[in-house]
Amino acid sequence: MRKIYFDEAGNSGNNLLDKEQPLFCYLGFEDCDSNTIEEFYSLKRKYKYKTDLEVKGASLSKSVTGQKFLIELWEKFGTHVKFVMHDKKFALACKMFEYVFEPVFCDVNTLFYQINFHKYIAISMYNLFTNSNHSAEQLFTNFYAFIKNKGDKSLNKYVTSCGIVKTSPLFYFCEFCNQHKTEIASDIDFTDKQDKYILDLTLTSLYNLLGVFSHGSPESMEVHCDNSKQIANEKGFWKAFINNTNIVYDTYFNSGAQLTFNITQEPILEDSKEIIQLQISDLLASSVYQAYLHPETDFSKTIKKISQTAYVEAYSVAPVELEFTFDEFEIKQFNKIIKLLASENSKVKKIEKLAEISSEVKYYQIIRSRYFIDFIKSFKLHK
pTM for the full model? Predict the structure, then answer.
């Protein structure tokens, strides 16, 4: 049986607009060695830290001695670590798609995902926000209030009163929200415990990392987490994975992601003051969080280099450049889709036209992908 210990850094719950903590790191450390505790104590003694007192990474990263300690900690235990790093503003941009478009078009949402239209919306919204566009910043704030308050009028009031450029995807997004605010709000029930932490990133991060640690193996994992209200709130979620040896992969969206794994019981919630392995996870998470938050320092560069193989990019919610993700044809078609969705056409007509455009884009993407593969093969042959 494998034992894996999880902790986080930068946790602000549902507040994804926290200016003081713009990133969220969730990290897992697998204890593969019976000497882990003694090795940790030995390292603490080396740097004159008391073995019976818990030290925190956020404070250690501010001193030269603490930085040396954290670097050596990564060198000692880093090969048994996996972590995700999320940009909270971009995560909120992704949530904007999920909680706005999906409730209205849940029956045909594959039309969005199979051509990566959801990524286009998220990147567009994030770009508008980070470019200091006042309209976008205000929209993020009001959308956040809208989701938390189950249909708060602030978003609708904002949409009708704020002057937004009509050629912007933001304008059509707001128009869509205005048209379907009842459906969007009714899909979110904050009286339900499952929706209490609807914008939080903890549960998704833990779930994805367990799939990474499992790596297709049916071997059971004992999961230990630092005390977390978010995880405690979702205990029932884990029942399907207890003593489950049937490993299933995603075929619906063709991502190949591992969807199931085998755990011995629900995540065990513990106090890091009592569990040394959780202290290790906390220190590793805090140090790598600081490294991504302040990437210009020598300490950060060293930590990022050491932790590179532990970083799970596939499940990290991080912004990318729109131009590097989609070409001119795709962007043009995506703009057609957002205008279509915000139009006065009936839902039936919207779905018909959406299916048509989606089919065109999907065919184009397949052809482009095959062309690219052939190009790479040709390049390798000539090389």
Answer: 0.86
